[in-house]
Amino acid sequence: MQAEHRYRDLAARRSDPFSFHLAIVLANKSMFLRRLGHIDSALGTIDEALELFGRSAAGGTARPGVYEAAALAAKATHQSAAGDRALAAATGEQAIMGLQAAATDVTAAVRANLAVMKHNQAVHLRHAGDDDAAAVMAREARSLLAQLAQEDADAYIRPLAHMVGRVAGASDPLDHVLAHARIQGRLATSDDVVRLMASADQAVTDQFIDAVIRVCTPVWKDSASAPPDELALRTGDWLLDLADPMSRRGLLACLASASLSTRGVTDAEVAWTAAVLPHIATVRDADVGPQGTVTILLVLDADSRRITDATELHAALPEKLAKVVHRLDVQDLANELSAIADAEGVIVIEFPLSREGAGNAVRAGRAGELP
User: Which of 138, 169, 200 is the last residue of a domain?
Assistant: First the structure.
């Protein structure tokens, strides 16, 4: 990161003010590392950031307290990802107390950050097995978020309103998308699934549904009428079991593939892309913004970024899939994704769930930032 190198140099020469800015850069970097799965590196980086925040406070820098609390909250999330659930809950509590102590003026921005911390703390407590404390923390977060959603505060406060639906502590990113599309329960109908692509044109919607049928193996309501040939055309309604991990992963792959198709990143059929995509890239996260815009974080696998030979890339696919896809097509998809990824192989895909949302966007990714 260029910013990191620049601030390291300035901090070494001019001390406190630049140590503070370097700490912010490192805290953001730690979250990026966590999303890429480098948990140990994320923990080491956030510890360095916290040390720098402490040094800035000792040197009289005015603002490190609030940022230090946010960095502690990030560390709690890293600890949870590492499996240290009890430690994450303890660090999360320290973050909340730190923010409350550091904030001399309870502005909307402070309350927004506090709400996010309480939301995350509810998840940490639940993972640590303290359901009662998690329920209390969730109620506090929900109350703060609902209050903020009704205010005409600064514009950056409003995006936090969508977290109201997430305070219950769902850990699977697909849950956020399903909730916004009003898909509830274990079984989703074919009509439910269509709503996930309500903003796309009919051709993409049809390809998306075809992809779900092929990739997620739904259960047909009238199984007796199903043709004996698995390749024959089936008609009628079907149900998708959202409790099945393979179906959930497949549905995320179909969403990402349909959005890539809509943006013209690839001209391959959505079903084909959805079958190949999980072997080239990983869907790390998904979220829904306040205006119904779905954001999917896609990370290219190391091998797909390293391998340039089409035959070698094709050979890495599962045998059954490799028999039905051409090696040059696989290489084309890897090249198309690499062309829109950032230096770390991260791609952010955005698309609206409803026609009221803004236009789709695909860009090189960046992890979330501290306030």
Answer: 169
